[in-house]
Structures
1.
Amino acid sequence: MTSSPPSAHWSLIIIGTGFAGLSLALQRMNGRQEDFIVLEQAQSPGGTWRDNRYPGCACDVPSHLYSLSGAPPWDWQRKYAEAPDIEAYLAHLAHSLGSRIRYRAQVTSASWQAHKQLWQVELNDGSCLTCRFLVAGVGPLSEPAWPDFPGVENFTGPLLHTARWSKNQDLKGQRVGLIGTGASAIQVGPALAPEVAQLIIFQRTAPWVVDRKDHPYTPGIRRLLRTSPFLRRAYRTWLYFTRELKGLAFLRPNLMRKIEAYVRRDLTHKVVNPRLRQKIMPKTPMGCKRILLSDTWWSTLEFPHVTLETDPIHHIEATHLVTETGTRYALDALVLATGFRYQDNPMARLFKGEEGITLEEFWKEQRSAYLGMMMPSFPNFFLLTGPFSGLGHNSIVFMIECQTRWIQSALAHVAALGKSEFKVRAQAYAAFTNEMNRRSKNSLWMQGCQSWYLDPEGRNTALWPGLSLSYWWRTRRFNAQDFEYA
């Protein structure tokens, strides 16, 4: 008996098997709404936690908060989970979806077919799928940002981006250059330092770093959190609200300045070397860029074989990196902790809405999405973790679950109306964008820093300008009047 070929048409297609895609897929399965498929370009699930394999990679949100609230309990080993544990957690969630996930299915284009009121999704193997509704859970931080330093292509040693780390890469005993001092750099640097012969860290802007206070859970605590739903919920709630309170400082600069003064005093006490302390003392207001968590960054910089270089990079040669003042560093390997392409993520070129306009073209004036999820000219299409839905103080998984519940409500409303197509009204989209711009002006993110949060016009387009509780309030129900139906 031969098996039947896979279906080419679905009510719903979800792209991606990170937290976002799996959250929606599991909600659909739990509601017995099984006419969907999840497309994953890789051969295994996990999204960013599959792709980021650099040494020291871990989450900066507590593990019991960085997990799906409605999923079965997971035996988290540490307060802040390391990447392999998070990848294993996501693989466990994906396993319950079985054949609903199609692996090695890379989307090469997705276009709205107005005459059929369908999305046409083309894959890298040449096959074509159609669906009534399309959800992109590909993540805003998925495409590495490669620096364009003169001569970087001539470097003969390993050139490693933290988001594309070679699985079996061994840098033991080598002279390593690390470009960047952002979120991935402060993890990979301390992990590499004990192994390498020399570590040169090239810093453009001194980051704000506060203690992470990480620790492993004892076997007894792990057993309690695994077996007691009440204690697990209470602990998760406590973690959530302690971080939510910290979010007030991003909206009230006077409060953040008090925290900033404390961190400066802490740095002064912990870093003895005055020259090093001057280099790592931030010059920007605390909170206008991502605040980093680490228990080991400052101490790593004090190792005798670690050098922090603040002179800008001039060019790169076959075996050397040269700064603007002419200092030459002989290097065996170069690690690029240079982040991701957010404002110009090529993902936006894949999706074509009404009249063939791409999402990239639609966003030419400004990246935005109604509630971080929908745009006019793109009927029946949802983004997960889209513009204005990121966070600087709490768990993005909370925002994801707000979005997936809202999408479920939206789909249920459209089905109840007996309609085949809906899209956000242009007026509602414009009003939301104007509100986000207005509220962002008073936030710390627009106080003079250059960060990936801001577009070329200096506008925040990444983060929700408020507490995550206010986002939950806005997404608690579907506002039918903001949409057009057909």
2.
Amino acid sequence: MNRTCDTLILGQIVTVDADRRVIADGYVAVRDGLIADVGAGPAPWTAAETIGGPGFLVMPGLVNTHTHLVQGCIRGMAEGTTFEERLFGFYYPMTGACDEERSYASALPPVLDLLRSGVTTTTDDHFTHRHKRSMDGVLRAVTEAGIRVRAARLTINEPTTVPDGFRESVDEGLAETERIAAEWGSDTVAVTAGSIGITYCSPEDLHALYDWTVANGQQFDIHAPSYMDKRYLEERRGWTGGSIEWLDSEGLLAPHVIAIHAQGLRDGEAERLAAAGAAVSLVPDMELILGMVTFDSHRYDEAGVTSSLGLDGPVVSYGHNLWLGMRGYLMAQRISDSVKRPGVFGAELLFGSPERAIELATIGGARALGMADRIGSLETGKDADVLVVDLSGETMLSPPAALLANLVWSGGPSPDAVHRVLVRGRTVLRDGEPVLADRRRAVAEAARVQQDLLDETGCGRFVRARSPWEWK
């Protein structure tokens, strides 16, 4: 029986459903923003619009579970700096100088990076609030691009890790969180509270932020372990155990908690995460860029922890392409394995699979964000968040026998091959170009804002500071 739908998408369908079906010649029918049907063969649907066809790949939109989008204004400036040099030297000054308009201009290019690589859902962690509406600018950029966001407004006030002018009381932080949630909350925007990490506010304040997320049914994400934890947990709080052990001891692990980075764990901490039902956001692209070769995702799989992939901010995740995160996931673990087991070569080093990497970037991210009932796979009844790739001109993906392996190891499709990106059935990108935002205007405005910030804050001294080349 022929039925009607808004959009009919044809091609090779990578469902990432419970059975992990890949349908060589299939269709996805979209009606009222939802997936009405997924099947094989001739589609029993009449559509207002039909897209795709032979030579097209159709898969769920990607889910990025960690970033700091306001960092667009300091993209790539981590090169030649230590963590504390960049945090105190230019991160706080430059992002702190971003009001709503500057934050919008700073965030829009990395948001469009995400969109042009097929990301339909992202998170954002925002923690520089000298201008109270700075986070509003980021949310304006995300909503203008048309993708989903779970945004966390992070309260920070620990004097040893937070400079003057950036500290605020937990009451002030929660009041602003509630304002932003009231102004921006929607079907595609969720706003929550938190702090960067354990040592960026007092334990009492961290509990207050956590309690707010419980009371409001929102997620609690926490960088754990973070760079500052070992020093400040031991020196200031007398805690010699691990960060996850500390969270568990404080009753701050639960199914709505997601641990960001989650590397350098002590024995038994992965099992604590699993027992609590908490998730992790692995950030392997950043780990590789910073030369960290102790990446370990084995323990999470062995313990049964829900894992996902994030990118961190553009300062240390330059291209903002989640396909690079997928490649990094496989590469970082293989490098780590080779370091731990010197002299072992061959198949034993070939950790993971491209299919597993794609799972983490789709349904894994959806589970980590508590949204697996709505996104992350192509199944009837879910929101129509869909990525459609035109393979006809993709030389790096040809010939197609090992298509998924080539997709992951090549860093994903080229942007102009991304034929469509749909969020809740609405086309937000067509043939590599955003539908709702002007890409070239965004690039020009971001360049202007960055130069203004460099001049205003004096942070230009960090640009190419350790470059071996002579810049005229």
